[in-house]
Specification:
The chain has 237 residues and is α+β, with helices and mostly antiparallel strands. 31% of the residues lie in helices and 27% in strands. Strands 2, 3, 5, 7, 8, 9, 11 and 13 form an 8-stranded antiparallel β-sheet that branches. α5 (183-198) packs antiparallel against α6 (202-236).
């Protein structure tokens, strides 16, 4: 009989369910997933593959109210191993440190039995400052559990996704749609153009900025809701 509950850190290692595992990222019942080498930057105004970024030593910078689609450095292997460990499920989320800094994560949360590959998600910056993430940054936490009781093989599905390109194709993601320029950037640009064109003095600029701040806040909320809608479509697929 398989023991239920969360799998402890030492057993996570012995089960070989994480490829590229870093011993320093193991915890008592979780593992810290690190940022991988590829991302897609959303809201740039560019089209197609111009938004795909190979993350080098310069990292990937997420501007205020901008988001990225990321992949993890590790690959998760939940393919059925044997009768002793037939079905394992994973759940992952953003580390609280980054949540407190104003980041919101959108993922499927549950990694189903039969999955193999990196994990992917949408990371949105709702703060007022840009933030740079570097390859190898531990920003997610994942836990694993054994499935106990009856589990029909008819629900088991092998799902192998090896790269962020495979992820985009698998979910039929419209990169051009996600790449449309942020409305917030457009408002900021229009405001700056207004200042230059009319030679607005500082006091008038402050008044204009205060009026624009409310509009930008409303737009930011609508922007977030839009991204959640896109992610909900991915989950349905």
């Amino acid at each position: 009989m398989i023991d239920g509950g969360v799998i402890p850190g030492d057993k996570i290692k012995s089960l070989n369910i994480i490829e590229g595992l870093d011993n320093e990222q193991l915890r008592a019942t979780t593992y810290n997933l690190r940022l991988g080498n590829h991302a897609i930057i959303c809201g740039t105004g560019k089209k197609g593959d111009k938004n795909f970024k190979d993350i080098d030593d310069s990292g990937v910078t997420i501007d205020p109210f901008q988001s990225i689609i990321f992949e993890t450095a590790e690959k998760i292997n939940l393919l059925k191993k044997d009768d002793k460990n037939p079905y394992i499920v994973g759940r992952f989320d953003l580390k609280i440190k980054y949540g407190l800094e104003g980041f919101i994560l959108q993922v499927g949360t549950q990694v189903e039995p039969g999955y193999y590959g990196p994990l992917f998600g949408l990371l949105l910056n709702t703060s007022g400052e840009s933030k740079t993430f570097y390859t190898g940054t531990p920003f997610l936490q994942i836990e694993f559990s054994n499935i106990t009781g009856s589990y029909s093989d008819k629900f088991y599905k092998t799902n192998i996704i090896n790269s962020i390109n495979d992820f985009v194709k698998y979910h039929d993601i419209n990169i051009d749609l996600l790449s449309k320029g942020s409305i917030i950037k457009k408002v900021e640009g229009n405001l700056e153009n207004c200042r230059k064109e009319h030679g607005v003095v500082d006091k008038k600029v402050d008044l204009l900025i205060n009026k624009a701040a409310f509009l930008i806040s409303v737009i930011a909320i609508l922007y977030t809701i839009f991204h959640e809608y896109i992610i909900s479509i991915w989950r349905e697929k």
